[in-house]
Structures are given as structure tokens and as C-alpha cells.
Write a structure and sequence with these properties.
The chain is an alpha/beta fold. It is 28% helix and 23% strand. It starts with a strand and ends in a 23-residue tail after the last helix.
Length: 278
């Protein structure tokens, strides 16, 4: 039987359940920052082999995934339809000037490269920019191609106007951010992304007090970044063990000092009109 729960911790509300069931009950989301399961990860072997298996990163990843990974193995067309349907629903409960940051990667199926831009086209969102996350290393050492050391972050906006904090313009579109590491090299979530990624997304497109959302919360990295920046957070996670980890991390984050200053009177918000600037 699927476990269901709702936990309110400070300015965060965490749901245990299927995001497709919970999304219709939500509203007022200002920014979504997420990294969904990438699908067909159950095809990862029980034991790493070749150059990949000889590396500590490859062997460690396989071990963590087989111990703690999601059982996400949908047919590719079903996975793509599922992802687009979820973010169609996210658009419906987001503010008119909201942003969506979708972290995914290039994948290969039957010898064909699948770039997320080619298939992720949710209704109600307009692609604004693609950011390349340079992770500082890769593990595809068995593939007959250049080892992949990057992932993609697709930034979408809801409408013709969106929130934008101009002091973030210098971040550019290539983010060199090291992969998440835990003390002793052990991560609580096998594919958790570093806090710096949601920190940049949230800081660039929201204000203090805005609501940040993640429908595939995992261990709540997006939520921790949101609370540190003085934002509210709503997260959904379907896997109980990660939901419990998320609750603990959010409790710890809520007890820590915030990383923002009190709001100041500011110049006119740079909500850009498409067509006025690139």
C-alpha cells in the first residue's frame, strides 16, 4: 500500500505521494526547480565493468543506484508523455510570471541521442534559455564517444513577462559546479544535485517570500536552497525513504540563518518583453 503524508515545516510543505494526484490542489507557484528521474535507469548493470567499473566513481554509482535508486523503467514514449503531462499541470498552478528550471541530460536509446529540448515541450511554457551544467567529470567510460561531463538545465517562462533579477546576468550559460558530495563520499540520494544549482535558479527569477516548487523532490535540495534564500517551498516525493530524508533536511535548514537581506526599495523589475530583447 502506498504511504501518503503531508508535513509542514516552517515555510515548507512536503507531500509524500504521486505528483499527478497532488498538483491539482496547488496554486501560486512562482518558480519550479527540478531534476526528474531520467528513466530506464534499471538497465544499469548490477556490477560496473570496463574502465567505468575500474573507476571509483563508476563502481560507487552502480552500488548506490542498485541499493537506493528508483525503479523508473517506462517505455521511452510513455516517459516523455508522462513528463510533459506533469509540467502541463505545473503550468496550470503557477503564477503568470513564473519560471521553470528543468534539469535533464542527453540520453541514448537504440543508438539515437535524445536531447531533452527535442522532446520536452510542456504546454503553457516557453523556452527562454539552455544552461549547460559542467559537472567536472563523467562516468561514461565504456561508451564509444567523448565521455559526457555535463547536464542541461532548460529555463522556461510562463508568459511574455517574467521575474528577472539582473544582478544574476553574469552567471552566463555554462555553470561549472562540482557534483554533490557527502562526507566520506557517501550521498543520501544517488543522484542529488548540488545546492548551488537551485540557489542560482531561485535567486535569478524570484523574490523573498515567493513560493518554490519541486514535483520530484528527492532529498529536497531545491527546498533547502529555497529556505536559505527566504522563499517558501512546496515539494512532492513518491519514495518514502527519500521523503523522510527530505523532512530531516528541511528541518535542519529551517533552523539555520537565512542567506538574504531584508527587501529594499528597488528599481523597476526587469520583466522583459519578448521581442524587445533577445
Amino acid at each position: 500500500m502506498t504511504r501518503h503524508a503531508i508535513e509542514t515545516i516552517g515555510d515548507a510543505v512536503l507531500y509524500l505521494g504521486d505528483c499527478r494526484e497532488i498538483l491539482p490542489t496547488l496554486s501560486g507557484i512562482n518558480c519550479t526547480v527540478t531534476s526528474p528521474p531520467y528513466n530506464q535507469m534499471t538497465a544499469i548493470p548490477a556490477k560496473a565493468s570496463g574502465l567505468w567499473g575500474e573507476s571509483r566513481g563508476g563502481a560507487g554509482f552502480v552500488s548506490r543506484w542498485n541499493d537506493s535508486g528508483y525503479a523508473d523503467d517506462l517505455p521511452e514514449h510513455a516517459y516523455q508523455a508522462f513528463q510533459c503531462a506533469v509540467f502541463n499541470a505545473v503550468a496550470a498552478c503557477s503564477a503568470p510570471d513564473a519560471s521553470l528550471f528543468y534539469n535533464h541530460q542527453l540520453r541514448w536509446r537504440d543508438g539515437e541521442c535524445l536531447h531533452p529540448i527535442s522532446w520536452f515541450k510542456p504546454e503553457g511554457w516557453r523556452l527562454r534559455s539552455e544552461v549547460i551544467w559542467e559537472r567536472g567529470g563523467g562516468m561514461m567510460l565504456n561508451a564509444r564517444m567523448f565521455v559526457r561531463s555535463d547536464e542541461r538545465i532548460l529555463w522556461f517562462v510562463r508568459g511574455r513577462e517574467w521575474k528577472w533579477n539582473q544582478d544574476h546576468v553574469g552567471l552566463g550559460t555554462i555553470w561549472k559546479v562540482a557534483r554533490e558530495q557527502r562526507q566520506g563520499g557517501d550521498k543520501e540520494h544517488p543522484v542529488a544535485y548540488p545546492l548551488e544549482l537551485p540557489h542560482r535558479c531561485i535567486g535569478a527569477t524570484t523574490d523573498v517570500g515567493d513560493t518554490i516548487f519541486d514535483p520530484f523532490m528527492g532529498s529536497a535540495s531545491t527546498g533547502v536552497a529555497a529556505l536559505k534564500l527566504g522563499r517558501k517551498f512546496i515539494g512532492i516525493e513518491i519514495e518514502p525513504k527519500y521523503f523522510d530524508i527530505a523532512c530531516r533536511r528541511i528541518e535542519e535548514a529551517w533552523k539555520q540563518p537565512r542567506l538574504f537581506e531584508e527587501p529594499k526599495p528597488k528599481a523597476e523589475q526587469l520583466s522583459l518583453l519578448a521581442g524587445e530583447q533577445a
